[in-house]
Amino acid sequence: MSLTALAAAPAETGPTLEDFGKDPWWLILGKVLVIFVFLVVTVLLSMWVERRVIGRMQLRVGPNRAGPFGLLQGLADGIKLALKEDIVPRGVDKVVFVLAPIMSATPAFIAFSIIPFGPEVSIFGHHTPLQGTDLPVAVLLVLAMASMGAYGVVLAGWSSMSPYSLLGGLRSSAQIISYEIAMSLSFVAVFLFAGTMSTSEIVAAQVDTWYVILLFPSFAVYVITMMGESNRIPFDLPEGEGEIVGGFHTEYSSLKFAMFFLAEYINLATLSALCTTLFLGGWRAPAPISTFWEGANQGWWPVLWFLVKVWAFIFFFVWLRGSLPRVRYDQLMKLGWKVLMPFSLGWIMLVATIQAFKNEGYEVRQIMLITAIAAAVVLAATVLWEMARGGSEEEAKAGQSGSGIAAGGVSKGDAPVDAAAGGFPVPPMDAPHYHGKAGKTRTPSKEVTSGTH
Fold first, then answer.
1. Three-state SS for 120?
2. In the chain, where are the structural domains located?
3. Residue 397 has what pLDDT?
4. Max CA-CA distance within the chain?
5. How many CB atoms within 10 Å of residue 431?
6. Phi and psi at residue 258, in whole multiples of 5°?
7. Which run of H or E residues covers position 410?
8. Pick from 282, 427, 314: which is nearest to 50 by CA?
9. Which of 116, 127, 303, 307 is found 20 to 30 A from 354 (Cα to Cα)?
């Protein structure tokens, strides 16, 4: 299906950077309040949608008691979290422990201020864009806020003085560094085609064709990295319940935990809105609607198209959570460093070359479409190859481990145990004996030696 919009008329291109910075103070405050309320309501609805959709996928009912169809369940959970006892464990760094959830939630609100909801409209006689603000480097602001939010997660894990929290914080720092680089690289092709980093002007540049068509490989890389950035299944390693309890927020309760919860769902909405802005034409209506209806991209109607696209991405996140298992940490790192980053660098070089030909006056639209399809095939083949190669490596390691066991590599009696034999490195564990109080060495009982505790 073609996603070609209406022919670019001056009124259709939307606001530009020159249209910002002219609003009166009351309108600026009103925009800030609307964005804040929109995000809070989106969080409540996202929680309800997620629980209802996954309930249907798992043949369960989902929340259906608090309010009609359970619509008020998220509000009830929020009130419960706010009124619960706030427990602060002994030994934590209290200043950092308290600041960490604030550092995680605040950047999530700020990042949404540069997302365009619609074109220029009239509010109480004053013409203003439906956007909080815009900058020449607006997309970089989102990346900067995502990095600031990572500090909240890392500091929460460090200040909790808990091994589970520390492991979650370390996982988060490595994951965000890995996937934020690939996410930034996926934006470069958009910047080259649009010639700007302003979100409003990127939307204006998609008046003819959405970038999901011309830059589909960048779109595919972004969709993968946005899952890694949001710390959700299948990439929720920083808070893997089956491995490290709750990860970085294990020691948090009450309102502090609620702020981490709030930050996660706001990031979900921000990443979905940013993808809509960069690749799906922003607030513009799809081709079948915009072709037959002249007013589809004017007035307040574009807000509807924007919300439909954002909620389609939120549903995609929910669907993934109910469908996919959690990946291993080595698989997560391998995908980020060995697949997404090299592919993104090669794709950027190709896009830059095509853009140079375009600047020379060559017609490159068909070449770009063919190149995008070929690049998507290469990306899919690379991912499948890495998955198959990873499986063969694991089988080889398992075979080596088995031969080691047969040769006496793993202990009987008092022989030492190699904790990293045939697998991933783990902290060394003294199998034959363990240490008790005051550093005294004890001999394990028969029950411990046999594996029952």
1. strand
2. 17-394
3. 55
4. 86
5. 17
6. -60, -35
7. none
8. 314
9. 116
